[in-house]
Amino acid sequence: MNKIVLGLIVANLLVTLKGFQDDAFFNKFKFQVGKILNGEKIRMITSGFLHADWAHFGFNMYALYLFGGIVISRFSNENFLLIYFASLLAGSMYSLYQNKKDPFYSAIGASGAVSGVVFSAIMLYPSKTYTFLFFPFIEFPGYVLGVGYLLYSIYGMKAKLGNIGHSAHLGGAIGGYLVTLLLRPSVYNNNPMMILIMGAIVIGLFFFGDRLEKL
Fold first, then answer.
1. 110 phi and psi, to 5 degrees?
2. pLDDT tens digits, residue range 176-187?
């Protein structure tokens, strides 16, 4: 495993453990709209290292392990970290926009950052297939995974599943998509039609995701 990916997983583990054991720490650094609007901007980053439970942590870190290695093999360590943290911040910014009228809205999780890394990997290899623990005999093309991930995010926002930043999935995907295109425009040539379709879906959900949430 690349040392940068491993370092991020360890950092998430340590902060998550601290959050499990210390409610004051958890509440101080989680994403909360009212606190952020009152100047505590650091929560937009620190909340991305806290998790609701071990299943939440495990899913995010497994996805980071699975897709992080793919992305970092095509970028420098510095650019990989740029994709990770830009996606994390984009996810937080979208969550803030989505919930700006609810000062008590709170969320945690690396979902935004991981979503950006997932989309970056899909853009690098849009036709690559993946298998997962719960579906070991089924292969999913990358672009199908990307669409499914976004639809799950919309469902999560609509159903308000748990204390998890589902809206951050969408913001993170947008961040990963845009930063990857900025850093390596040549990914467009990998599968132009699929890159355009994914871009249209991302942009469409960005503008109309809040309407879908209210359906």
1. -85, 15
2. 989 999 999 988
